[in-house]
Amino acid sequence: MPFRTLLLFGAPGAGKGTQGKILGAIPDFFHCACGDVFRRLEPDSPLGRVFRQYSRRGELVPDDTTVAVWRDSLARAIAGGKFHPDRDTLVLDGIPRNVAQAQMLADTLDVVAMLFLVCRDFEKLVARLQRRALQENRGDDANVDVIRQRFTTYERETAPVLKFYGQALVHEIDATQTPIQVLRDILRHIAKL
Asked: Lowest CB count within 10 Å: 36, 53, 186, 191, which one?
């Protein structure tokens, strides 16, 4: 049975992780950030090395690997009683990251809405990523060249996912607001569902 799913969508630094963590703390919601799943891998494991290799260049991990690691993480969350698919809404950020992944997950996800966090100010996004790099010790967010490559990858590979799911599911939210204002707008959309 497909998982009832909300997709948090937007460019790197738009606030998907911040909002996902908040939503995940609300009963009957389960947040899964694909980047966090990868960062929890043992750095010296084969998959951990693959993740580091791609993230250092600002590129996406290959689709088969990404989906397999994500599925395994979700299965462990279900087995551990953290995610209850029969009652919880799955809140995703960082997956699907391209149309191929969306197609691979079509039988797994029942996407009820895409919450598109929009921030067209590149410099603001860069500043957010660099601040996050310092706060969370995330080297993939510290280098401006890597950040630029991540934005190029986002525009080329990730943005087309919006069209895959269709405009009827997309709800644009101004990500330049304060986090609490962004949350307010997200909750307004969720309440309508």
From this structure: 191
Give the CATH H-level superfamily of domain 3-192: P-loop containing nucleotide triphosphate hydrolases (3.40.50.300)
Tell me the sheet residues that pair with 3: 109
Which helix (H) or strand (E) segment holds residue 163: the answer is: helix 161-165
Domain coordinates of the chain in residue numbers? 3-192
Q: For the chain, give the percent of residues with pLDDT over 70.
A: 97
b/e map of 63-96 (b: 16 or more CB within 10 Å)? bebbbebbeebbeebeeeeebeeeebbbbbbbbb
Arithmetic mean of pLDDT, 62-83: 94
Tokens of 9: 């969508």
CB neighbour class for 156 (10 Å; exposed up to 12, middle 13-18, buried from 19): exposed
The neighbour count for residue 45, using CB atoms within 10 Å, is: 10
pTM above 0.90, yes or no: no
**Residues 40, 56: Cα–Cα separation, whole Å:** 16
Can you tell me the distance from the alpha carbon of 100 to that of 98, in angstroms, rounded to the nearest whole number? 6
